Amino acid sequence: MGRGPQLKRGPFTAKDVKKALKADGWVSKSGGKHQTVWTHPAKPGKFAVSESWTALRAWDPILKGMVRTCGIDKERLLRLLNGLDD
Prior knowledge:
Structural class: alpha+beta
Number of helices: 3
Strand order of the largest sheet: 1-2-3
Oligomer: single chain
Radius of gyration: 13 Å
Largest sheet: 3 strands, antiparallel
């Protein structure tokens, strides 16, 4: 019995994070010059994505904060970052 696809643990970029947030239903709002603020219609809170993120790895403090702030399970976040849950 297989374990499913092997999940990449990084590096992830700001583009990967944005795609993951979008796949989970988050929408981007206007942010500062170098960041985008994301909100969810049904979940509380906001999450800011910086364009300077180029080499995030699981479990970087930024991704741990994303799990806490966005209410996304760790395993689901990895699947979203790998483009498996759209």
